[in-house]
Write a structure and sequence with these properties.
Elements lengths: L2 H15 L3 H8 L5 H16 L1 H8 L9 H16 L5 H15 L2 H16 L9 H4 L4 H11 L3 H8 L5 E5 L6 H10 L3 E4 L6 E5 L8 H4 L3 E3 L2 H10 L6 E4 L6 H9 L5 E6 L2 H14 L4 E5 L13 E7 L19 H4 L2 H13 L2 E11 L8 H10 L3 E3 L15 E4 L1 H4 L4 E8 L2
Parallel strand pairs: 5-6, 5-8, 6-7, 8-9
Antiparallel strand pairs: 1-3, 1-4, 2-3, 9-12, 10-12, 11-12
Helix pairs in contact: 1-2, 1-3, 1-5, 3-5, 4-5, 5-6, 5-7, 6-7, 13-14, 17-18
């Protein structure tokens, strides 16, 4: 399968089946040559990152309603014509016409050819002043972010369209950062030591990491630096008992186990059985023996867990607006659906607080950047629970993060995913 066809199929799966782009691409690119896979990902993510802008540019040249396949073919072509200067215009047009023949019909191919030729004759399109169109964020989302971030909004929107590096956490139970770095060098991957997070590397050009020996041998795992900070804030020690109540796919549980030197007990929960299997396979690959999985709804009480844990990690379900760089289609979510999330987050936090022993820690985190899902939830909880107090977390030197009980990271400021961490101590 060619890169362009894979990208088109992924876009159609997102559109028709409600699939997420990363999952759709992973299924489609299983046996694809690395260079073609990289181009397919670039094309698919590029169209999703710029969909509203591409439609704005196409609008003067299109009449009437288009078939879904034709619409996506045109978006793919215009993305190549405007953002990828190494692809000749003739190649982009010819490939689009060929796709229209294969995925639609001859009439559609003639339409695609005509639209793209007209687009090229019109010259380089101008970027609109409107932020929503310029950075392809729906107006409702742009307004929501503007209300919270003001003058920082444009830089935030821009950062959502920047390609993030893959972040690897080194499994220090089995190896060293230097050995992982050498293994990446040996396969031609570009890597850098993370600027402020120990035992962490940023990687580009490695292709599918799961195919590499350094990954399969359990010497590292993928986790953004921001997510790692939720475990960092907990200051875990060997021998402790930890509950990770919304654990899948397991990154925080793995980081906790490494921080605890694989000594103690970690119970990793999820509501979906197949996600528990992901955690189990990950723990086995990394050589971690202190993790036990459990099928459990985080909002439902478990009597035997009352006051039983030194630390509870509560990474609650959220709108996911902090990971738009990696899942660009999240920006097109119906925000009305996310308005119900704070009530669910509050219920989960309330339930999980029961399991913290006197003197223990409750870590509330999300991968969103909306105050209503972050500070507002934590502050409301503290008003109801005088037995918990906010405690300043001290983050790695060089991070630029001040010691604080509640911290929001932004891709435009910290080069990480958007993320929130609150550190709450139960009085002893």
């Amino acid at each position: 399968m060619t890169a362009r066809d894979a990208a088109l199929r992924a876009l159609l799966a997102c559109r028709k089946d409600g699939a997420w782009s990363d999952g759709a691409l992973k299924r489609l690119l299983t046996d694809t040559e690395p260079r073609e896979a990289a181009l397919a990902s670039r094309l698919c993510y590029g169209v999703l990152q710029n969909r509203l802008l591409l439609d704005h540019w196409l609008k003067p040249f299109v009449r009437g309603k288009l078939q879904p396949a034709v619409e996506e073919i045109l978006r793919l072509a215009v993305y190549q014509l405007t953002f990828l200067d190494k692809i000749p215009p003739s190649a982009a047009v010819n490939e689009a016409v060929g796709q229209a023949k294969r995925f639609a019909n001859p009439a559609a191919a003639r339409l695609v050819n005509g639209v793209l030729r007209s687009f090229l004759r019109a010259g380089t399109p101008k970027l609109p002043e409107d932020l929503s169109l310029r950075y392809s964020h729906p107006e409702e989302l742009t307004s929501l972010l503007q209300a919270q971030y003001g003058d920082r909004t444009e830089r935030l929107l821009q950062s959502h369209n920047e390609a993030p590096a893959t972040v690897l956490q080194v499994n220090t139970l089995r190896t060293t950062t230097a050995r992982v770095a050498q293994a990446l060098t040996d396969v031609g991957a570009e890597w850098q030591a993370h600027p402020w997070l120990p035992d962490c590397l940023t990687v580009r050009g490695a292709g599918d990491l799961e195919r590499l020996d350094v990954f399969r041998d359990g010497l590292c795992y993928v986790q953004d630096a921001a997510a790692r900070l939720a475990v960092w804030a907990a200051e875990l020690q060997p021998g402790q008992r930890v509950l990770d109540c919304c654990a899948a796919p397991g990154g925080k549980s793995f980081a906790a186990a490494i921080a605890m030197q694989n000594r103690g007990e970690i119970i990793s929960c999820d509501i979906h059985p197949h996600k528990l299997r992901l955690i189990e396979r990950g723990a086995e690959r990394l050589g971690i023996g202190c993790i036990t999985t459990r099928l459990q709804n985080a909002a439902e009480p478990v009597a035997e867990w009352e006051s039983a844990f030194d630390t509870v990690l509560c990474d609650a379900p959220c709108s996911g607006l902090g990971v738009i760089r990696k899942k660009p289609d999240i920006r097109y979510k119906d925000l009305i659906q996310t308005e119900r999330l704070p009530a669910l987050q509050a219920a989960i936090l309330e339930n999980q607080s029961r399991y913290v022993r006197a003197g223990g820690l409750l870590i509330y985190s999300t991968c969103t950047i909306l105050r209503r899902e972050n500070e507002a939830v934590a502050e409301a909880f503290l008003r109801k629970h005088s037995e918990f107090v906010p405690e300043a977390a001290v983050y790695p030197e060089g991070s630029g993060l001040p010691a604080a009980a509640m911290t929001t990271l932004l891709p435009c400021d910290h080069g990480t995913d958007g993320f929130f961490v609150a550190k709450l101590r139960k009085k002893g």
